[in-house]
TrEMBL record:
Record: active site: D36 (proton acceptor), D176 (proton donor)
Protein name, entry field: Ribulose-phosphate 3-epimerase
Pathway membership, UniProt: Carbohydrate degradation
Family: Belongs to the ribulose-phosphate 3-epimerase family.
Catalytic activity: D-ribulose 5-phosphate = D-xylulose 5-phosphate
Gene3D superfamilies: Aldolase class I
Originating species: Fibrisoma montanum
Record text on cofactor binding: Binds 1 divalent metal cation per subunit.
Matches recorded under SUPFAM superfamilies: Ribulose-phoshate binding barrel
Upper taxonomic lineage: Bacteria, Pseudomonadati, Bacteroidota, Cytophagia, Cytophagales
Annotated keywords: Carbohydrate metabolism, Cobalt, Isomerase, Manganese, Metal-binding, Zinc
Amino acid sequence: MNQPLIAPSLLAADFANLQRDVEMVNESEADYLHIDIMDGVFVPNISFGFPVLEAVRRYCRKPLDVHLMIVQPERYLEAFAEAGAAVIHVHYEACTHLHRTLTRIRELGCRAGVVLNPHTPISGLEDVMEVIDVVLIMSVNPGFGGQSFIEHTYRKTARLKNMLATGGSSAMIEIDGGVSVDNAARLTEAGADILVAGSSVFKAPDPAVAIRELKEGRLP
Ligand code: DX5
Ligand code: ZN
């Protein structure tokens, strides 16, 4: 079984010590830094915007994995590309013209990610597979960190893996929400390539060790 890539989610960091927490990620075995942008409309919470993202970018040496929980994300693609996003994820539920939006993300030189809420079936991706670099499966309802993992995600991940293989897609599968050492190995086994982890990393006694354990799939 391959080791998953790990994307610690900045949402669970200490915002009064962001530079310290970003340095921890730099020194760790993390592969990305996951950035959650929430607009208070698509999700019932507001996180942070460009000034914070730009400050983080100045210190972060890992690629930025930007998760847009906003309505009409197409209005901000250039701005997030300019702000240093390596991957831009848009929600399936927020995009009227998903194919156009994903194509535009690639034109901007970023990798194109599409996010599925827990209730959104994978079948809606069948006709846009060729413009997707990453599918992000929400394993909680988006908007908040620290929620419980939805068990159905294992089956959804395995079905998506199968659908991508059948369709000849090399898109990666990413999982976000309630990820911890208790479910990491099973998610990887089901087909996940990238694991986002907020609370289980930043609330751990040693976040860098937590990142390594997620990667190595230590059994709980
Ligand atoms: C939730 C966000 C997540 C969140 C994950 O809407 O998309 O990235 O930070 O946090 P945990 O890992 O604590 O569930
Ligand atoms: Zn996220």
